[in-house]
Amino acid sequence: MASATAAATEPGWLAERRGRAIEAARELALPGPKTHGWEFTDLSRLDLAAFEPAVGGDPAAADGLATRLAVPAGSAGGTQVDAASRADLPAPDGAGRPDGVAVMSLAEGVERFGDLVAERLGTIVSGSSDPFVAANEAGWAGGALVYVPRNASPEHPISLTAVQRAAGRSLNWRSLIVLEDGAEAEVWERYVSVDDDSEGLFNGVTELIVGEGANLRYVCGQDLSERSWAFTSQRAEVGRDGHLEWVALGFGSANGKARMETKLAGRGAGARVTGAYVGDGRQHLDYDTTQEHAAEDTTSDLAFRGVLNGRSTAVWRGMINVDKGAQRTDAFQDCRNLILSPRAHADAIPGLEIEADDVACTHAAAIAQIDPDQLFYLTSRGLPEERAGELIVGGFLAELVERIPAGAVADALADALDARLGELLA
Hints:
Layout: H1 4-9, H2 12-27, E1 52-53, E2 76-81, E3 84-88, E4 102-104, H3 106-112, H4 114-120, H5 131-139, E5 144-148, E6 158-164, E7 169-179, E8 184-193, E9 201-210, E10 215-223, E11 229-238, E12 243-250, E13 255-264, E14 270-279, E15 284-293, E16 299-308, E17 313-322, E18 329-339, E19 345-354, E20 359-369, H6 372-379, H7 385-403, H8 408-424
Parallel strand pairs: 1-7, 2-6, 5-7, 6-8, 7-9, 8-10, 9-11, 10-12, 11-13, 12-14, 13-15, 14-16, 15-17, 16-18, 17-19, 18-20
Antiparallel strand pairs: 2-3, 4-5
Helix pairs in contact: 2-5, 3-4, 6-7, 7-8
């Protein structure tokens, strides 16, 4: 929850918001096996009270930290280790740049851009009915603010990294990314642990606001310790003729849930969402995705791929919502899983809720093992079975990389998947 020091120094509107969130967090029970959307994710062993909020921290602990998802050369932004933030920017504080772009901790943003943060924070993701979002709103510290003004286009990608170092602690990470009308930016956000064997709880909320005619490329990688809990709620709202390119990777954590929601709020808005998760051991990965079409002539295209080994499990639940009046919607969603072990398991549940009558909405889902015919074909031509399996799995994930225009994002996605598969198939 919010510290006494923070409460004493924060503006009244934020203190009031934290107070409401504290009450909501106390009243809202954790989801159970009969709670819609949580049927496949067991929280019976989660004791939120056991994870005290992270305090302090040394941002230098992130220096040299190996991550599977590498940000592009020349990128700049901010790093937070536990509750301590550091700006990694050309300008000392991320403000005063000639293009008007602001990149800083959300706590600093409250001080320097109070009206902007007060107007936008919490408008895309609400904690009124979600205990994890309520806990985040009550207890976030540091966080990140990215603000790109009208028609601005930063030359280099913006990178944000949240690092969990203290074992047995919770990290409530909050980020607010705002692109005004006509703006364009590339933002990378990574969640990582210093120790691969450290227990902890990561609770993140990200709000993406894409203005009219704006273009956001957003890359997010979850690479936390495989003994940690991870809960993330990410939601984007895209204005008229705006576009969102969203790439998501899930490699770490032991258990939890990731919510990824996109609302196409203005006519002509579009979004392409590309995601991959790779599980091993006893990991459980849970993804809820929503594509909400709230205006005419909007498009969305979502594709996920999962690879599961060991006794890992995954569930993907996707929903396309077409609101009344959102005519000429074009929406597609697809999730395919490749099972490498007889004890691994996946569930893929696509869904449609359509209230308009002039739409083109389709979905697909599949769960399969490596095709024996493909394996036989490759081994019959002299490849060892292990190498043949690697090629098949690599080809399965290469479909995702091909969705991304050639460049730094596609290269980083391919490298991250190769690194994770190398560990999985070693």
